[in-house]
Amino acid sequence: MSAAAEALTALRAAVDLLLTAPDLFDRDDDLHTFVIGTLVEQHRLVAALAPAVARWDRLRLWANDGSLSAASRLSVETHTSKAAARCTIRRAKQLQEMPATAAALAEGSLSPEHVDLLSRANHSHRRERFAHDEETLVDACKPLLFDEAARAVNYWRNRADADGSGDNEATERRNRAARAHLHASETLDGSTVINGLLDPIAGEIFRNELERLEQTLYLHDKQMGNERTNAQRRAAALVEMATRSASTPNKAQRPKPLFVVHVGDETARRLCELAGGAVLQADDLRDWVDDALMETFLFNGPSVVLTASQKRTFTGKLRHAIQARDRRCQHPSGCDTSAVRADIDHIVPWADGGTTEQFNGRALCSTHNRHSEKRDRNAKPLPQQPVNHLAVLRAKCRWVYQRDCEREGDNEGKDSS
User: Are 176 and 139 in contact, with CB atoms under 8 Å apart?
Assistant: First the structure.
């Protein structure tokens, strides 16, 4: 028996054993470990199978029975859709070109979705740059939540595409607003079907207002004892938006667009993203600058905002600063609710002597903040650091020094090229 046949036999035996595993658990901890561990091994199996799939495709072994494509053969014999079969083959080929990604997948540090994310970045016009930076990208993605990893990769893509030469994707991103559309059609029974596409900023404005109204309807339903799904409340919120628009006088003052975007100054000039995490090009903001309300925050490292407040509640600029610092709900479960839609509350409660300052404040979604059984009781305030004029001056000097060093590095790179 060949080594490959022995490995397949051992795998089948292991799966047969797993099929009986649900009856073997005595404790919840064992069940949790089994679920997580099995899914990680499933990811590792994708890495183990990839070289064989790529070789099987390259040798055209799939054509032995007259199949028209590798995806067709794989789809028929594994009882999957052609789309799933094409995905398997595509990932296998991509992993042969991304050794650091394949190694991370094999050790269980990344998932197949990370493979897709990184392979989209490994576009033909970035191939050489990606090969140079792949290990750094993989190491950056390993400790991050998937959405945060996607944001990091998008920043790398923006940096790699800085000149925009030969990049169809960059051109398409610049045309996102032009591709926006909305269709509202009436069905035979008089119902209305809505579908459309908005660019990231317009979408953020729309979602923020929709979610605000949906939350209002949720509180009303809770008070009245009504039972509606989230989707039903969103539909009602959309109608409420239209109703309020129709009742607004023609000459009423137009409200400011409601969205938050984080942009860097010249020091951190590559930072440009919506509070929800969507990475933007600086050009995307051009049409909104005239209506924008600017607030500035000076950070001394990743967690200290050089600002202060003695208020009992987190409001105004201090609230916005903590949102900018935390970005998402800080519950240790990894909740990805945006800080813009979260509560900003004390770590040590005010009633227990907790102060209203950045080191004792954090973003928590309403569920993790207001439901006592879900709240994180083990959180500790951030270490106290000086927040005064001297600290501000030192931070500014540090940022300017970092900017100058980066400029020198960029100039050296241009000279060498």
Answer: no
